[in-house]
């Protein structure tokens, strides 16, 4: 399934999310600790990424180093729709400048893929809608 033009290792689908807007959902079982896919997009400076983030309600930007960020706002990769959760089932890892998602546990078909984005450009001003029992309330 994964090719240079398609970094997905497992089938996923984008559809409406109970968390926020669109989400990405497992379309097949995903085993624990396996790479699911990548977030790709335009490489920009961190300064430019932060400028763009101030102008967007839904931010699809990840800083991969002190100098470089990936803006997936116009990407076709489904992983850009991975919503935040305080009880995530995936973890985001930066590997050689790539933004990769890995399953933290086995994920069932139909389950929404989520990640804890930690400190974000929202700076705690955005209400978290993840619904997790341990939700911190803001992101």
Automatic annotation (TrEMBL):
Major subcellular site: cytoplasm
Record GO biological process: methylation
Gene3D superfamilies documented for this protein: SET domain
One Gene Ontology cellular component annotation held by this UniProt entry: chromosome
GO molecular function per UniProt: methyltransferase activity
Keywords linked to the UniProt accession: Chromosome, Methyltransferase, S-adenosyl-L-methionine, Transferase
InterPro entries with a match to the protein in the record: Post-SET_dom, SET2_Histone-Lys_MeTrsfase, SET_dom, SET_dom_sf
Protein name as annotated: SET domain-containing protein-lysine N-methyltransferase
């Amino acid at each position: 399934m994964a090719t240079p033009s398609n970094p997905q290792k497992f089938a996923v689908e984008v559809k409406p999310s109970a968390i926020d807007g669109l989400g990405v959902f497992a379309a097949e079982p995903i085993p624990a600790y396996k790479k699911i896919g990548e977030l790709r997009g335009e490489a920009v400076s961190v300064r430019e990424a932060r400028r763009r983030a101030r102008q967007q309600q839904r931010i699809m930007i990840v800083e991969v180093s002190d100098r470089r960020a990936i803006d997936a706002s116009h990407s076709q990769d489904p992983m850009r729709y991975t919503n935040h959760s305080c009880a995530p089932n995936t973890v985001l890892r930066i590997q050689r400048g790539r933004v990769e998602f890995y399953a933290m546990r086995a994920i069932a078909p139909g389950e929404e893929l989520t990640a804890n984005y930690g400190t974000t450009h929202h700076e705690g001003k955005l209400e978290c809608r993840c619904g997790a029992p341990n939700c911190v309330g803001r992101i």
